[in-house]
Amino acid sequence: MRLSEWRAAAPKKEAVTAKVAAVVDPILEALGAGPDPHSWVAWGDEPASRFTIFVPTDPGLISCFVRVNVPGEGARATTKLVRWNRVSIGELAVETQAGHRLLSFQLESQVLRGVDVEADHVAAFALRVIAAIDGRPLPPVEERGAGRRPAGKPSPGTTAPGRTAPAAATRSKTSPTSPASSTALVRVKAASNADR
After folding, report:
1. Which of 33, 43, 7, 36 is nearest to 138 (CA)?
2. pTM for the whole thing?
Protein backbone atom coordinates (compact mmCIF):
# COMPACT_ATOMS: atom_id res chain seq x y z
CA MET A 1 0.00 0.00 0.00
CA ARG A 2 1.10 3.52 -0.68
CA LEU A 3 1.72 5.94 2.19
CA SER A 4 -1.23 8.06 1.03
CA GLU A 5 -3.51 5.01 1.37
CA TRP A 6 -2.27 4.44 4.93
CA ARG A 7 -2.96 8.07 5.76
CA ALA A 8 -6.50 7.85 4.34
CA ALA A 9 -7.18 4.79 6.52
CA ALA A 10 -5.51 6.08 9.70
CA PRO A 11 -7.25 4.98 12.91
CA LYS A 12 -6.69 8.46 14.43
CA LYS A 13 -6.71 11.62 12.35
CA GLU A 14 -4.20 13.28 14.74
CA ALA A 15 -1.55 10.93 13.32
CA VAL A 16 -1.87 12.21 9.76
CA THR A 17 -2.07 15.98 10.09
CA ALA A 18 -0.20 18.28 7.74
CA LYS A 19 2.31 19.05 10.53
CA VAL A 20 3.19 15.36 10.88
CA ALA A 21 3.48 14.95 7.09
CA ALA A 22 5.75 18.03 6.93
CA VAL A 23 8.16 16.28 9.32
CA VAL A 24 7.97 12.75 7.84
CA ASP A 25 7.86 13.28 4.06
CA PRO A 26 11.15 15.19 3.62
CA ILE A 27 13.03 12.58 5.68
CA LEU A 28 11.63 9.67 3.66
CA GLU A 29 12.50 11.41 0.39
CA ALA A 30 16.01 12.27 1.62
CA LEU A 31 16.66 8.59 2.32
CA GLY A 32 15.52 7.56 -1.17
CA ALA A 33 11.87 6.66 -0.70
CA GLY A 34 10.45 9.09 -3.23
CA PRO A 35 7.02 10.69 -3.03
CA ASP A 36 4.17 8.46 -1.80
CA PRO A 37 6.25 5.27 -1.38
CA HIS A 38 5.02 1.69 -1.01
CA SER A 39 5.16 1.24 2.77
CA TRP A 40 3.78 -0.39 5.88
CA VAL A 41 2.55 1.61 8.86
CA ALA A 42 2.57 -0.17 12.23
CA TRP A 43 0.02 1.93 14.10
CA GLY A 44 0.55 0.17 17.44
CA ASP A 45 -1.59 0.70 20.53
CA GLU A 46 -1.49 4.52 20.53
CA PRO A 47 -1.61 5.75 16.92
CA ALA A 48 -2.63 9.23 18.04
CA SER A 49 0.73 9.62 19.77
CA ARG A 50 3.25 7.30 18.04
CA PHE A 51 3.62 4.85 15.16
CA THR A 52 6.27 3.38 12.85
CA ILE A 53 6.56 3.59 9.06
CA PHE A 54 8.57 0.96 7.13
CA VAL A 55 9.62 1.70 3.54
CA PRO A 56 11.62 -0.80 1.47
CA THR A 57 14.13 0.85 -0.87
CA ASP A 58 16.98 -0.54 -2.99
CA PRO A 59 19.74 0.17 -0.44
CA GLY A 60 17.76 -0.93 2.64
CA LEU A 61 14.71 -0.62 4.84
CA ILE A 62 13.72 2.84 6.03
CA SER A 63 12.39 2.66 9.57
CA CYS A 64 10.72 5.89 10.67
CA PHE A 65 9.47 6.14 14.25
CA VAL A 66 7.03 9.05 14.53
CA ARG A 67 5.97 10.79 17.72
CA VAL A 68 2.96 12.89 16.87
CA ASN A 69 3.10 15.53 19.59
CA VAL A 70 6.29 15.98 21.62
CA PRO A 71 5.52 18.53 24.38
CA GLY A 72 6.85 21.95 23.41
CA GLU A 73 8.15 20.72 20.04
CA GLY A 74 5.35 19.24 17.95
CA ALA A 75 5.86 16.19 15.74
CA ARG A 76 9.19 14.35 15.71
CA ALA A 77 10.47 11.57 13.44
CA THR A 78 13.49 9.41 14.23
CA THR A 79 14.50 7.66 11.03
CA LYS A 80 17.19 5.21 9.99
CA LEU A 81 18.10 3.32 6.85
CA VAL A 82 18.85 -0.28 7.81
CA ARG A 83 20.97 -2.08 5.20
CA TRP A 84 19.28 -5.25 3.96
CA ASN A 85 21.91 -7.53 5.47
CA ARG A 86 21.11 -6.03 8.90
CA VAL A 87 17.30 -6.12 8.73
CA SER A 88 15.79 -8.37 11.39
CA ILE A 89 12.81 -10.48 10.30
CA GLY A 90 10.86 -13.43 11.63
CA GLU A 91 8.90 -16.10 9.82
CA LEU A 92 6.06 -15.31 7.46
CA ALA A 93 3.29 -17.49 8.91
CA VAL A 94 -0.20 -18.19 7.58
CA GLU A 95 -3.01 -19.94 9.44
CA THR A 96 -6.32 -20.79 7.81
CA GLN A 97 -9.66 -21.90 9.19
CA ALA A 98 -13.18 -21.96 7.75
CA GLY A 99 -12.22 -19.89 4.72
CA HIS A 100 -10.39 -17.22 6.71
CA ARG A 101 -6.67 -16.69 6.90
CA LEU A 102 -4.48 -15.03 9.49
CA LEU A 103 -0.99 -13.96 8.48
CA SER A 104 1.80 -12.63 10.66
CA PHE A 105 5.31 -11.38 9.96
CA GLN A 106 7.86 -9.87 12.33
CA LEU A 107 9.96 -6.99 11.04
CA GLU A 108 12.42 -5.03 13.20
CA SER A 109 10.64 -6.04 16.44
CA GLN A 110 7.21 -5.09 15.08
CA VAL A 111 4.66 -7.84 14.41
CA LEU A 112 2.62 -7.18 11.27
CA ARG A 113 -0.70 -9.06 11.28
CA GLY A 114 -3.57 -9.30 8.87
CA VAL A 115 -6.82 -11.19 8.44
CA ASP A 116 -8.29 -12.09 5.02
CA VAL A 117 -7.89 -9.05 2.71
CA GLU A 118 -5.42 -7.36 5.04
CA ALA A 119 -3.42 -10.62 5.04
CA ASP A 120 -2.85 -10.09 1.31
CA HIS A 121 -1.37 -6.67 2.05
CA VAL A 122 0.92 -8.10 4.75
CA ALA A 123 2.02 -10.89 2.39
CA ALA A 124 2.78 -8.50 -0.47
CA PHE A 125 4.83 -6.25 1.81
CA ALA A 126 6.64 -9.17 3.48
CA LEU A 127 7.54 -10.71 0.13
CA ARG A 128 9.05 -7.38 -1.01
CA VAL A 129 11.17 -7.30 2.14
CA ILE A 130 12.25 -10.94 1.77
CA ALA A 131 13.14 -10.41 -1.91
CA ALA A 132 15.30 -7.42 -1.01
CA ILE A 133 17.06 -9.32 1.79
CA ASP A 134 17.79 -12.16 -0.67
CA GLY A 135 19.34 -9.66 -3.08
CA ARG A 136 16.57 -9.99 -5.65
CA PRO A 137 15.01 -6.87 -7.21
CA LEU A 138 12.00 -5.50 -5.36
CA PRO A 139 8.81 -6.94 -6.89
CA PRO A 140 6.62 -4.40 -8.64
CA VAL A 141 3.99 -2.73 -6.51
CA GLU A 142 0.49 -3.92 -7.40
CA GLU A 143 -1.58 -0.80 -7.78
CA ARG A 144 -5.28 -0.86 -6.96
CA GLY A 145 -7.29 -2.04 -9.95
CA ALA A 146 -10.37 -0.38 -11.35
CA GLY A 147 -12.60 -2.96 -9.67
CA ARG A 148 -11.35 -2.26 -6.17
CA ARG A 149 -12.63 0.26 -3.68
CA PRO A 150 -10.71 3.51 -3.12
CA ALA A 151 -8.37 3.87 -0.15
CA GLY A 152 -10.11 4.30 3.16
CA LYS A 153 -13.32 2.66 1.88
CA PRO A 154 -13.23 -0.97 2.98
CA SER A 155 -15.63 -3.38 1.33
CA PRO A 156 -18.58 -4.62 3.38
CA GLY A 157 -17.45 -7.17 5.93
CA THR A 158 -13.82 -5.98 5.98
CA THR A 159 -11.92 -3.23 7.73
CA ALA A 160 -9.32 -0.69 6.76
CA PRO A 161 -5.68 -1.56 7.55
CA GLY A 162 -4.91 -1.34 11.24
CA ARG A 163 -8.54 -1.70 12.35
CA THR A 164 -10.35 -4.65 13.83
CA ALA A 165 -13.85 -5.75 12.86
CA PRO A 166 -16.30 -7.66 15.03
CA ALA A 167 -16.16 -11.42 14.43
CA ALA A 168 -19.51 -11.50 12.62
CA ALA A 169 -18.45 -8.75 10.20
CA THR A 170 -15.33 -10.61 9.07
CA ARG A 171 -17.17 -13.57 7.57
CA SER A 172 -16.49 -13.88 3.87
CA LYS A 173 -18.70 -15.30 1.14
CA THR A 174 -15.70 -16.64 -0.81
CA SER A 175 -14.66 -20.23 -0.45
CA PRO A 176 -11.21 -21.11 0.90
CA THR A 177 -10.22 -22.36 -2.55
CA SER A 178 -11.29 -19.29 -4.53
CA PRO A 179 -8.51 -17.29 -6.23
CA ALA A 180 -9.28 -14.19 -4.14
CA SER A 181 -8.97 -16.01 -0.83
CA SER A 182 -5.84 -17.98 -1.68
CA THR A 183 -3.69 -15.16 -3.10
CA ALA A 184 -1.54 -14.81 0.02
CA LEU A 185 -1.05 -18.58 0.27
CA VAL A 186 0.10 -18.82 -3.35
CA ARG A 187 2.53 -15.94 -2.87
CA VAL A 188 3.95 -17.45 0.32
CA LYS A 189 4.33 -20.88 -1.30
CA ALA A 190 5.98 -19.37 -4.40
CA ALA A 191 8.46 -17.47 -2.23
CA SER A 192 9.33 -20.57 -0.24
CA ASN A 193 9.80 -22.65 -3.41
CA ALA A 194 12.07 -19.98 -4.90
CA ASP A 195 14.39 -20.29 -1.91
CA ARG A 196 14.93 -24.03 -2.51
Report:
1. 33
2. 0.71
CA atoms within 13 A on the CB side of 37: 27
Neighbours of 117 (CB within 10 A): 22
pLDDT exceeds 70 at position 30? yes
Strand order in the sheet with 50-56: 40-42, 50-56, 60-70, 74-83
pLDDT at position 73 is 87
Contact 162, 168 (CB under 8 A): no
CB 55 within 8 A of CB 36: no
The answer to whether 61 and 79 are in contact (CB under 8 A) is no
- pLDDT at position 157 is 45
Average pLDDT, the chain: 80
Confidence class for position 132, pLDDT limits 50, 70, 90:
very high
Of the pLDDT bands very low, low, confident and very high (cuts 50, 70, 90), residue 144 is: low
In terms of Cα–Cα distance, which of 53, 57, 3, 50 is closest to 31?
57
E-strand ranges in 25-140 read 40-42, 50-56, 60-70, 74-83, 89-97, 100-107, 110-115
- End-to-end, the C-alpha distance of the chain in Å comes to 28
Q: Where are the domains of the chain?
A: 3-86, 89-194
